[in-house]
Structure formats: C-alpha cells, structure tokens
Amino acid sequence: MSSSSAPWLSRPFVAPTDLRPLLDLVTAANGDARRPSHWHIGDVLWQMFRSDGFDAAARIRLWYDDAGLLGFAWRDDPASAVLQLHPRAHDNDALEAAMLTWIGDAWSVRSDGEAARAR
C-alpha cells in the first residue's frame, strides 16, 4: 500500500474479497441524493466479468481509510476511466487528485503491460 503523509492508503484490487467493498461503495453512492453516482452494481459486475482477460489488479485501484473504502479509480481502454467516491469522501480534493494521478500514470502502460504509445 502507498500512503506517504495522506490520511488514506491505496492499493490495487487484488482479491475476490475486494469486490464486496466495491459494491457497497457504489450502493452508498447511489443512495446519496446530493450527487449523481457514476456506476451501480450492475456496471461493476458487467465491466469486471464481461471478458475472460480482465486484469483487475492493473485496472482498478482502491483508496481506504480507517473507516473503509473511500473510492476507486477504474482504468479502461482506450483513454477512459471511472472515479467513484464514497459519499463521505466527496469534496476531498486531495483524494481526487491522487486518483487522477494514478489514472494518468496507469495510462502510461497498456493493460497488457506494454508501454503505451503517445497519440
């Protein structure tokens, strides 16, 4: 996990046990009437299980604090991504910046591990 001085830890999605917190987060986000949610449970499951070659560790990064999952960033090809925050993490500019930085860094490597070409 990486943290530096941030009040959260981040790591890749690596285990089947990571799925439940991800689904709980999108459920909580959909229950927050103050802000629209990007995804719902069906989107998460469809994106994850629609093909055999999905590499969750390369495409999904999770951010946690002591209370649980704060948010996730999901890298897609080509050059698209989803960021989803838990309602308690909205308006956390530093967290959003960390998520966007990861997305930018992740795009420098294709999902198959090869270096991406500049377009």
In short:
This protein has 119 residues and is α+β, with helices and mostly antiparallel strands. It has helices spanning 19-30, 41-49, 56-59, 93-106; strands spanning 9-12, 60-65, 68-76, 80-85.
As an assembly, this protein is single chain
Poorly predicted ranges (pLDDT <50, ≥5 residues)? Answer: none
Shape: globular
Q: What is the overall number of helices?
A: 4
Helical content band: 25-40%
User: Order of strands across the biggest sheet?
Assistant: 1-2-3-4
Order of helical and strand elements = EHHHEEEH
Q: How large is the radius of gyration?
A: 14 Å
User: What is the rounded distance between the termini?
Assistant: 31 Å
Total domain units:
1
Please count the beta strands (DSSP E, at least 2 residues each): 4
In what range is the share of β-strand residues?
15-25%
Q: The biggest beta sheet, please?
A: 4 strands, antiparallel
